[in-house]
Design goal:
- This protein is an all-alpha fold.
- The chain has one domain (2-60).
- Helix content is 66%, strand content 0%.
- The chain contains three helices and no strands.
- The protein is globular and about 35 Å long.
- The chain starts with a helix and ends in a 5-residue tail after the last helix.
Amino acid sequence: MNEVFGNLCQVATAKNLASQNVFNQTDVYQLFLLNFTPWALLNYSTLKEFEEHYVDILTAGRNAS
């Protein structure tokens, strides 16, 4: 739970900065990781999807089918 909370705080902070550069760079980095790891099997792979579905992820205990 600490990791999830930390990630949510990071996204919230990045989205509230004057410039969206940090948020966009984080999103690109996540896509890079997804394309080159087994994480490509995740249901939600972007920060926006994670923000919209984090309750589903927490409820299921995972972000994959």
